What we know:
Layout: H1 18-22, E1 25-29, H2 36-49, E2 53-56, H3 61-68, E3 74-79, H4 88-101, E4 105-109, H5 112-116, H6 120-133, E5 138-142, H7 150-163, E6 167-169, H8 181-190, E7 196-200, H9 206-215, E8 219-222, H10 225-237
Parallel strand pairs: 1-2, 1-8, 2-3, 3-4, 4-5, 5-6, 6-7, 7-8
Amino acid sequence: MSVASISADPWKGPLPSVEEAAKMIDHSLLRPELTPAEVSEGLATALAYRTASACVRPADVATAVTALAGSGVAVGTVVGFPHGGTTTAAKVFETRELVALGAQEIDMVIDIGRLRGGDAAYTRDEIAAVVEAAQGRTVKVIFENAYLDDARKVAGYRAAEAAGAAFVKTSTGFAPGGATPDDIALMRRTVSPHVRVKAAGGVRTLDALLRLHRLGATRFGATATATILDDLRGRLTGAAPLPAGGPAGGY
Length: 251
């Protein structure tokens, strides 16, 4: 499933540098059909643009660790992805294995049904277990906001903060909806300043990224990394951007 792109009016505010914007992006390489060659191409994109991270499937972590060594681009991966329906013990085992392989950031999916059913304590406890298993690595908690009403969202965000998560995150990109301005604003005003907000699902343009950044998101899951950053470079220099996708275009 492909989440619709976020609609955003042309950005008229100040622009970040390309380097600043790149460090807001987790270049996403999570589509199930990606071949090893396509994963390598995507890692080259993350490396070329010096993104905050490349977020890869668990089976690709070892490859990413080798490809990105010494670059300053973190290796991120996912746990319980994309549905969140595995047991807490399975998520803990997966986290420990991925950390041992060299993953530096863990994006975990909560048990969405448990939170929808009102069991925020379960949500808090499973997040806390993954945070402990991550041994100090950054943990981002994916809520799949499209399935939750605002009361459940707020309860989940507060559970994530209580459990020690570094980020609350909108979505996997595989649900009926992705990041929305209203959800970003709700996330930002619900959690404390030290808990950051990640937008994922439909962030495919520079204008969308900047709009959500203004509302409080500081990290973005994106496949259209090259398109976004080439557009920014073109606006900053007054030059036409590179052809869509740029080098090793996003997926």
